[in-house]
Write a structure and sequence with these properties.
Length: about 350
């Protein structure tokens, strides 16, 4: 090929999506590799989407007007602080695009969300990965020490994907107060709806702590709109949100996706009920796994983390043979999503055999 690719793009691996499962011995299979919501759309969503399809010959609202108004009202925010994208990962990419370039540094904990190093690499920037603690938590002191004059952004994931712990709110406030004002701080709260620890980070409150803070959220998880791809952000500085809106492709979010968001927001009582069920199952599974002897970190997401180390591939195969497709991180561990009760019971059955 005569075309020359940019050096940091050539050979760059694609994002690795969760794989589909194969049936176990009883013919049943569950995908617990992608932290998806196991339940269908909330009441009213399918009807709203169907109505929107009648006008698929028209472009969607490029300004996301109704979504912006609805979220601003719900959270008491200035509309100019908000921006949207096709999933929170796209909003993240646009935030980095607006602030980072070749040679700049981005600090984040590791292991964390797999898209982080890819989003940094595509810009020619450099990842500065700070190891998690032994309990799968962010080491905020080490992250602060990793900030240099070349640092343009810091990313924190709370609850952390894939390990599960949420960052205590007061600890993150103290951290932010020590971060220079000219650094973007992205607080990735993709799983915020599942958080029930009163001491955990409250991202929208951080907008008053540091001028570069952004709270990043999604409708893919608790709201069950993963296939429609809608993420959003709220920024401390309206200029940050304006920059993201400027680099986002026009008409990025489809009309069906926009109306699905609005209908989902109207179904808040049903959402709360479903989230409570998932939290109950998460806590039940984590408690039972610890009783079995597994070192499961405290989790505030819709998943649990098995720190399997060198046994990761062996445990992955054990789950797979039982009809459960998990997410494996070679040499580190497995992330297992909370699913339907039958799947969760199967997870416990398999987990009970792994330490024998």
């Amino acid at each position: 090929m005569s075309l020359t690719l940019r050096p940091h793009i050539a050979g760059m691996p694609p994002y690795r999506a969760g794989r589909s499962p194969k049936p176990g011995p009883d013919g049943r299979a569950w995908k617990v590799s992608s932290n998806e919501n196991p339940y269908g759309p909330l009441p009213g969503v399918l009807e709203a989407v169907a109505r929107s399809l009648e006008e698929m010959n028209r472009y969607p609202d490029a300004g996301n007007t109704e979504m912006t108004s609805a979220l601003a009202t719900r959270h008491g925010l200035d509309e100019e602080r908000l921006a949207f994208g096709t999933g929170s990962v796209e909003v993240l990419a646009h935030l980095l695009e607006a602030t980072c370039g070749p040679g700049d540094e981005v600090v984040y904990a590791w292991r964390s969300f797999e898209a982080y190093p890819l989003a940094v690499q595509v810009l020619g920037a450099r990842s500065v990965q700070v190891p998690l603690t032994a309990t799968g938590e962010h080491d905020l002191d080490a992250m602060r020490a990793a900030i240099t004059p070349r640092t343009r952004a810091v990313m924190v994931c709370t609850p952390n994907n894939p390990t599960g712990p949420a960052i205590p709110h007061d600890d993150l406030v103290t951290f932010l107060e020590s971060v220079p004002d000219d650094i973007l701080v992205i607080v990735d709260e993709a799983y915020v709806e599942y958080v029930n620890d009163p001491c955990a980070t409250r991202g929208l409150e951080l907008l008053d702590v540091h001028p570069g803070v952004v709270s990043l959220r999604t409708f893919s998880k608790a709201y069950g709109l993963a296939a429609l791809r809608v993420g959003w952000m709220a920024a401390a500085d309206t200029e940050i949100a304006r920059a993201v809106r400027s680099v986002t492709m026009p008409f990025a979010i489809s009309s069906p996706a926009q109306v699905a968001v609005l209908a989902s927001l109207e179904a808040e009582p049903e959402l709360i009920g479903r989230v409570r069920v998932t939290i109950h199952e998460r806590d039940r599974i984590a408690e039972e796994l610890r009783r079995l002897g597994h070192r499961i970190p405290a989790t505030q997401g819709n998943f649990v983390w098995f720190p399997a180390g060198e046994l990761t591939h062996v445990w992955f195969d054990a789950f797979r043979e039982a009809g459960l497709m998990t997410r494996a991180f070679a040499g580190e561990g497995l992330r297992v999503s909370i699913a339907e009760p039958d799947a969760n019971d199967r997870i416990l059955e398999v987990a009970g055999t792994l330490l024998r």
